[in-house]
Structures are given as C-alpha cells and as structure tokens.
Amino acid sequence: MSVNPSDPNLETRLNSNGWAEGYLAVTGNKGISTIRRSYQLRVFDTFVKDRSLRILDVGCGNGTFLHHLHQSGFHHIAGIEPHETLLYDLARRHPELNGKVVPGTASPLPFTDHSFDCIYFFNVLHHLTGPREYDRAFDEVLRCLSPGGQVIFVEPCRKWIYASKRWMAGRLGRFFPFFRQMHAFMMEERDLMNQFMDHQSYIRNALRQRELERVHDQQFLHQWTVVARKRPGHANRD
Ligand SMILES: C[S@@+](CC[C@H](N)C(=O)[O-])C[C@H]1O[C@@H](n2cnc3c(N)ncnc32)[C@H](O)[C@@H]1O
C-alpha cells in the first residue's frame, strides 16, 4: 500500500498490523539485525560512553536495541512506543525491560523536564507526518533533556539508494517470501520516507532554532546520523 503524506489517517495506516508484521520479519532477520546492532552500538560507543547516563529510546519498536543497551551495561534506560503489536512483542521477548517502556509517541513525551541525558531516535523521525510533528518532537526533546544532554538520530537519507533497495526487494520477492514482505513494508513507508528525505535542511534549522548544537552530522551511504547537544547552561522555559 502506498500512502499520501497529506492523508490525516497516515499515522494510523502506517502503524497498521501489516506494517508491524513486515517490520518484525525484516528486523528479525539475522543478517539485518547484526548490521543494525553493530552500527547502533558503535554510535553509542562513540557518543554515549558513560553507562550511568539516562537514555530514552523513542519509537523503540519491539525493544531490540534497548535489550542490547541493557546487555552492554546501560541500566538507566527507558523506551516509548505507540504500536500495540510491537509493545506486545517487546513484553514477550524482553522481560528485563518490564516497567521501562511506556506506550506513547514522541510528542508529548510523558516525562518530567531534564529526565534524560540522551534521547535516541533510530529510524523514527521519518514516521512523523511532517514539519509540525518534527517541531513538536524537538520541543519535547529539548524539555526532557538535561543541560548538556544529547539527542541522537539515525535516519535514511538518499532516495536513490532507498529506491534501489526497494526495487531489488521487489525483484527478489518474486522468488523469496522474505523479500516479498520486505518490499511490501518498504512500499508502505515509501511516501513518508521520501517526504522526510526532502526535509533535511528543515530539520537542521529546527535543531539550530532550539540551540541544539549539532556536534556530529554525517551521511554515509543511505544513513544520516546526527548528534546534537543541548547547551549546558540552557534553562527550560516555564
Ligand atoms: C522503523 S520503526 C523503528 C523501530 C526501532 N527504533 C528500531 O530501530 O527497531 C519506527 C518506529 O517508530 C514508531 N513510531 C511511529 N510513529 C511514532 C511517533 N509519532 N512517535 C514515536 N514513535 C513512533 C513505530 O511504531 C515504530 O516502532
């Protein structure tokens, strides 16, 4: 199914069970999950070394990365996730995350001011429906970060690479059910993803306006990784 970014039901449709099944199948693949895990842990090893920091994983899916963080010695971890099927899968697979993950979205975040030292989005911003939602999410990030805290996001960034992967999945999907599922999942996200990739400068500007200083901003192949820091002296407005 393809989606129209101006469709008011977009969020609900993207969060359909068909989408969730595709997500679970793709992220459950051994090769894909190994690549994702090693990339994410490398980002944390580089930018979030201190195991005592308080981490929030926004749109944590079925909790796989929170589980890896927990195994790597991060214990002040929390997650927020809107999709019921993924929350159900998380509860079934990761009892160690019991009580650490709440249902909800990026805005509003149901946490008090300065609750976290690092707020992490992995492949989540492209699920937001456009500039208004990015703005609301960054306002909430700013409020919930401690002074000097960091927001990290990793998102897809090159349309042609994404389109090539989709094309390849479609071809292979003629022969292999796994790629058929991957292709359907990518088709469902396609329009939102393309819209997101057109909004990179909007997003950089939105961070700048909030004085979230970008300390790392790198595009490598299809991945855009940004680390932005809240000023140590920043006081939240009442
Ligand atoms: C591509 S998945 C990535 C999940 C997880 N971060 C991972 O890497 O496995 C996108 C996630 O964002 C969640 N999501 C969708 N809309 C959201 C919103 N408005 N706020 C927070 N999370 C959202 C989805 O339910 C889904 O779990």
Please provide a written account of the structure.
With 238 residues, the chain is an alpha/beta fold. It has a single domain (10-230), classed as Vaccinia Virus protein VP39 (Rossmann fold). It has nine helices and seven strands, in the order αααβαβαββαβαααββ. It has helices at 10-14, 17-27, 30-47, 64-71, 84-93, 131-144, 159-172, 177-197, 200-209, and strands at 55-58, 77-81, 101-103, 116-122, 145-156, 212-220, 223-230. Strands 3-2-1-4-5-7-6 form a seven-stranded mixed β-sheet, sandwiched between helices. β6 (212-220) and β7 (223-230) form a beta hairpin. α2 (17-27) packs across α8, α6 runs parallel beside α9 (200-209) and α7 packs antiparallel against α8. It is globular and about 55 Å long. It starts with 9 loop residues before the first helix and ends in an 8-residue tail after the last strand. Residues 1-13 have low confidence and may be disordered. It binds S-adenosylmethionine. Residues 15, 23, 27, 58-61, 64-65, 81-83, 86, 105-106, 122-124, 127-128 line the site of S-adenosylmethionine.
Tell me, rounded to a whole number, the average pLDDT.
91
* Superfamily (CATH H level) name: Vaccinia Virus protein VP39
Strand content: 15-25%
Shape: globular
The CATH topology name reads: Rossmann fold
- Uncertain parts: 1-13
Bound small-molecule species: S-adenosylmethionine
| Number of discrete helical segments | 9
State the CATH class: Alpha Beta
In whole angstroms, how far apart are the ends?
43 Å
When the domains are counted, the total is: 1
CATH architecture: 3-Layer(aba) Sandwich
- Helix- and strand-based class? alpha/beta
* DSSP strand count: 7
SSE string: HHHEHEHEEHEHHHEE
* Gyration radius from CA atoms, angstroms: 17 Å
